[in-house]
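Why run this: before we spend reagent on co-expression, it is cheaper to look at a predicted model of the complex and decide which construct boundaries make sense. The entries below are exactly what would go into the expression plan.
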Amino acid sequence: MATTSSVNEQPSAPAASGGSGLLVSLGPLSREALAVTLSNLAEAFPAQAVLVATPDPVSDTAVAPHLQLVPYTPPAPTTSSWLLSAADYLNTWKLLDGHHAGACLLLGPEAQSLGPAAVRALAEAVVAQHADLATPRYDLGPRDGLVNSAILYPVTRALFAVRSRYPLAVDLALSARMSERLAAVAQRHTASGANAALVWPVPEAAVASYSIAEVAAGPRALPPPGTIDLNSVLAQVAGSLFAEVDAKAAFWQRARLSYPPRNGSLAHTQPLAHANGSAEPPDVTAMLDSFRLAYANLHEIWALVLPPNSLLGLKKLSQLTSESFRMSDSLWARIVYDFILAYRLRALNRGHLLGALTPLYLAWVASHLLQTTPGAPDFIPPEKHIEAVATAFETDKPYLVSRWRWPDRFNP
Amino acid sequence: MGQQVSLALRESMHRALVKLASFLPGLLALLLALIALIIIGALLAYLARRILLALRFDERFARDRAPNVADWAPRHSPAELVARTIFWACVLAGLLIGVSAFDASLSASSQVSFLVIPYLTHWAGAILILLAGTVIARFLARSVLIGAVNLQLQYARFLSLGIKWLVLVLAAAMALDHIEIGGTIVDLAFGILFGGIVLTLALAIGLGSRELVSRSLERSAEARSSDARPSAVRPSGEPTSDETDAENPQRPRPTGTLRHF
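The model came back. Tokens follow.
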């Protein structure tokens, strides 16, 4: 069920460095959600003693006998509590260390929607197959997790050479040493009071040459963001990823892909249930309006970030009709790479930079939706298009490396 | 007559040269203090940089602290930040010592300082106010422009320009007031201009944002009446999913909805 991809050619050492038990760490859940989650855990591990850390009060009679409950005090809720934050990783490591467990399963908000088979597969990837990090591959709808498909997955795959479809997944399985490493990173943030800071497990594992597994996890209800403002959430997540890319530049400039870039088919992964897209034509009018308005007003700000070639591409894009609106994968890859560079070079205020990315992202979403709707002249299944985008990012990686090293060199 | 004119000219030239000469020791003291402290600062910064690099300060700092501090450091090196802080602290100290020496030498000998020094400092202050105003105006104009575009306000550029000129007019009025030019005329003109810009912006926003405000109020009312948890991300006008399917993830959701996260 699990597919393992590691950055280095050499297989990593077995993960377990502490005890042999499994710890499952849960976040705050409602009474009903907790009951469903505990039932799923009991079904996933029918004959295995498992420690379940939960901040919610539970009566012992309602729990299967082989699940041992461990109460803990959760970190203060933050606006980003829909994702795993630095405080969560630190807390998990403390629990893992305190109970001498050898591996842990970190289940995020809405954990009750994760099926027992997925929970078991995640745990097995770390316990039985000795991976250090196991990430789930959710079976989401074609119009879900779009930021992940547009930015997080392609950037992580191209730069860190790891094919983890959900790099910022809310459920993870960690070995003891991986948990310790993430806790060390998280502690830097929590020490300065940034409990809500995001930690990126996949790049961390890649840099440490730890083995990474991906597990098909089936459908899952992803928790909604704590705010309804797309700009602020996108800025938070993209900004955190850009900072991670900046911090790990020494690694990803050397990292080589363990598979040829042009071979980015779905052979490595399992097909998804929603792979054929949605038959209902999308309403992209608002997104296109947003992009065209931004092109008319933000051109001079984009000119500080993007080279003339990309600006020309955007100009052509702004003149297209709704039906023929298509953003090429290579243009999108260049745009994201140039924004990463501008983030590093502080070409303009970082808040402004990330704000200026939103209309471009919406343009990509509109193009993606139009292209992946059955009946479109150039129809392509959503997952295949996302793979094509990721391949474009891989192909264009030398551009980022070159400009990262010589940012002042002439760039048409 | 000619002799008297010549005498008057010679005397005035003598007085001017004497006054100019009285400047020179102070000026020389200022320059000497500045140059000496720049050299000392460069030496101290060099030493600090070498010592910190030998102690692997950057690595230790990166291991123990959050990355935000290193972000602000030049070349992302906290050691470089410390070295530059030392250098500029020395330069500042040199400037302060030089100015006080210059002031002391002048005030002891002539009345020029009572007229020239305050005037010069006021001009320097006014230039600083203008510079700060320009920087703040540009920053705010960009913030407003990006925010307004992301809210899909058609008059985003107009709003941004309004904010920019509002801050620039304010900075210019403060600068003129600082150097005491114009008196009440500046106050009056500033009041009229500032009030005019604010009124124009208020009218533009009020007339142009009726739909936006009503949509926002409707959304707030809906959010209050429905479940307390926000469940979707949407820029204005964009279709999104307003429900979570936590209870049954297998249930098909309306395909026209979007979820960015």
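Residues 111-226 of chain B form one domain. Helices of chain B lie at 2-54, 57-64, 67-72, 78-109, 112-150, 156-178, 184-208, 210-225. Bring this page to Monday's planning discussion.
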